[in-house]
Amino acid sequence: MTSTAKGAVIIGASAGALEALSLILPALPATFPLPIFVIVHVPPHKPSVLADIFNAKCRLRAIEVEDKEPIEPGVIYFAPPNYHMLFEDQSSLALSNEDEVLFSRPSIDVAFESAAEVWGAELIGIILTGANQDGARGLQAISKAGGTVIVQNPEDAYAKAMPETAIAFSPQAQVLSIADISAYLMSNSG
Amino acid sequence: MTEAFEKVEDIEIRLLLEALYHRYHYDFRSYAMSSVRRRLRQVRDNLGFATISAMQERVLHDPQMLPIMLRYLTVQVSEMFRDPSYFRAIRETVVPHLRTYPSLKVWIAGCSTGEELYSLVILFREEGLEERTLFYATDINPEALAQAEAGVYELERMRLFTENHRQAGGKTSLSDYYHSGYNRCVLDKSLRRNVVFSDHSLVTDQVFGEMHLVSCRNVMIYFDRVLQDRAVGLFKDSLPRNAFLGLGAKESLRFSEHADAFRDFVREEKIYQRTGS
């Protein structure tokens, strides 16, 4: 892929997220050509430190998004605590206060479904470790829109439920180890 | 979902929003599409409509459908003292400025069911400013406004509200302001003494007075950029030099065409002060 690469990467993770993301995001080169959106279940009533942690660890810039944040290639966008992350178009994010979905705000399903509308076949959706059902419907939406769907091998995952449910909803998903997910993204990093 | 279907649905949504505007003068046409699309699908699925066009047909001919649509299209998620650090910052950094004025006007724009309003009224009472303050609580949804005016909340929510109030630096007990029964809490009528409840739209209505503080939290996230600029323009015109604007925790004036008319006052709490420009 070149710097004119189109599309986006969206990642959902819950229990065990920090460790899994630490094996994926810091490995990406500064030239990674796609925006990366990350939805992690974080407690709603206190500030999240995820963006700060990964901004320090990664060659890519990592930020926690604010409403109407412009979307740029090679930036890692974290959904903020207590808001859903949605996509207006390929250049603009929006936040929402709507009800929790599967007890989650941010909800992986909500963000994935919205991203699927906007990027369609140009989207890479990845479900990592987690102890709940969130993300399965969202990944299915990406798959239906023609996007690439990847799930962390449940055997590798700190918590199996989220990847297992995602695979049940999207049997065609590529089931990969963390190392292979990392390698897959690197192969897309031109 | 195929491209063709997606496109049809977007047409249907646009037509439905036009219908709501022409029939009832509720203007959602410049709302953030991602969220409107999601909520209209919820109406469709929850009420058993086959298509969004079918909803349009119903709402045009049946006024009783309107409040149902409004319930979905205007998001009513709020808490008393939501984001306690915001209210603590108002108390510690904005209130000392407000004390210097003999009379005060505060506008809670998009007050929904009243939680933010009552948070500010209680805070102002605790700080001895309530008597000299007129609060304007506005929203477009008449059902939400009626609930705000009633000031009745579910008892089970009070535990969270009480904890928020404490974290916001509350000087009294929240239980001083309500009585409970039948799993409901009724807020003390005296909290409404200085409140004017009014129907007002940030989309279509104009400025109605000069304010010392505008609090508009998590309302503009549902607007597109153009509509956000209009709303911030209204706040700009309502606020004289050195007056204050408070937004939601993840809202920002960074992307607004009126950014130059404000300076950061408490940056991390999204409290802005009007400059002279």
Category from helices, strands and their pairing of chain B = alpha/beta
| Quaternary | heterodimer
Distance between the termini of chain B: 49 Å
- With strands numbered from the N-terminus, the spatial order across the biggest sheet of chain A is 3-4-2-1-7-8-9
Strand content of chain B: 15-25%
Annotation field: number of helices of chain B: 9
- The radius of gyration of chain A is 15 Å
H-E string of chain A: EHEHEEEEHEHEHEH
Contiguous uncertain segments of 5+ residues of chain B? none
- Helix % of chain B is 40-55%
- Envelope shape of chain A: globular
The overall average pLDDT of chain B, rounded, is 94
Major interchain interface with per-chain residue totals:
A-B, 29 and 26 residues
Tally the helices of chain A: what do you get? 6
Report the radius of gyration of chain B as a whole number of Å: 20 Å
Residues in β-strands, percent of chain A? 15-25%
The succession of helices and strands of chain B, N to C, reads HHHHHEHEHEHEEEEHEEE
Fold and architecture overview:
Helix content of chain A is 29%, strand content 23%. The radius of gyration of chain A is 15 Å and the shape is globular. Chain A contains six helices and nine strands. Chain A starts with 7 loop residues before the first strand and ends with a helix. Chain A has helices at residues 17-24, 50-57, 108-119, 136-144, 161-169, 178-187, and strands at 8-13, 36-40, 61-64, 75-78, 84-89, 92-96, 123-127, 148-152, 174-176. Chain A is α/β, with parallel strands linked by helices and 190 residues long. The mean pLDDT of chain A is 94. Chain A has a seven-stranded parallel sheet with strand order 3-4-2-1-7-8-9, sandwiched between helices. In chain A, a hairpin with a 2-residue loop joins strand 5 (84-89) and strand 6 (92-96). In chain A, helix 4 (136-144) runs parallel beside helix 5 (161-169). Chain B has 277 residues and is α/β, with parallel strands linked by helices. In chain B, the strands form two sheets. Chain B has a seven-stranded mixed sheet, sandwiched between helices. The mean pLDDT of chain B is 94. Chains A and B meet through strand 5, strand 6 and helix 3 of A and helix 2 of B.
